Amino acid sequence: MFPNTNPQTTTKVVDVLSKGSTGIIVLPQNPTVDAIAAATSLYLGLIKAGKTVNLVCSSPIQNDLLASDKIKSNLSVGGDNLVVSFPYADGSIDKIDYNIQGQFFNLTISPRPGFPKLNPNQVTYSYTGGTFDFIVTVDVPNLNSIGSLYLENQTMFQSKNIVNIDRHLTNGFFGTVNFVNKTSSSTSELILKTLQSMQIELDKDIATNLYAGIASATNNFTAYSVNAETFETVALLLKNGAIKKTYKPAGGAFQNTFQQSHVNPTKSFNPAPSVQPAFEQRTGGTIDVVEKGSAAQTKEGSPAPQDWLKPKIFKGGGLV
């Protein structure tokens, strides 16, 4: 289905993802709908395969795609260390103590005099110390495009297997395995190929997300990059329960393919001026007025015949 995809590459992708049990799927900062759809679909597929994976992005994400609410802003994959977090102002804590009462461990945090006490509603809990086996970058042309998640954790990226899945012409092939197809009309199509290679069954949620990614990347299937393989992929997704929607392209609101001209109803319409007749139109009057006017004109010129006001009758032979 992907003519520029080396089968050995997909085999390597499957090998890395199958051997690892935990991983992180990384998006670029300010990702497109196609990127989010591809990453969330891979996330859902790996979860179905029994993997422990996190989905991360340096930018905040607001999207209604399934599993987009799972996108985090840190590289943590859990662990055994409980972290208690709360807002802190410099010098606001006087001391931290603990005691054990029966089967309970009590942590005591005392504020410094003059500072407000800790608000329990602002306390959060998380786990750290966990490790992961692989990193999958989705729609990432180079590591710097990831943003702060990469810039602040470069050592972590250097020590892990990276599966680079992308279609950008400018991709730097930075991964341990590079699944890059620069002729693909969407990254979502590459994710579908990955899931198929891993023999992960498509469901309605995955199919719907992948359909959304392809529709957005191709401006609802009107892009020049769309080909027969694209429609074969879409047909497969629909057969697996994908819900069709109209998605906005990356540039903004959906634009109609055909330009339509219309009259703005708020503007006045000025029709072309009508052609005036060459002769002067006169208002009608009574017969006696016309006769008097005509008589006045005949006085100034040559005398008119006496019967000129009488109706004339024409026949084939001439005037009667």
UniProtKB/TrEMBL annotation:
InterPro entries: DDH_dom, DHH_sf, Oligoribo/pAp-PDE_c-di-AMP_PDE. Residues 25-214 form the DDH domain. Gene3D superfamilies: inorganic pyrophosphatase (n-terminal core). It holds the Pfam family DHH. SUPFAM superfamilies: DHH phosphoesterases. PANTHER family: BIFUNCTIONAL OLIGORIBONUCLEASE AND PAP PHOSPHATASE NRNA. This is DDH domain-containing protein.
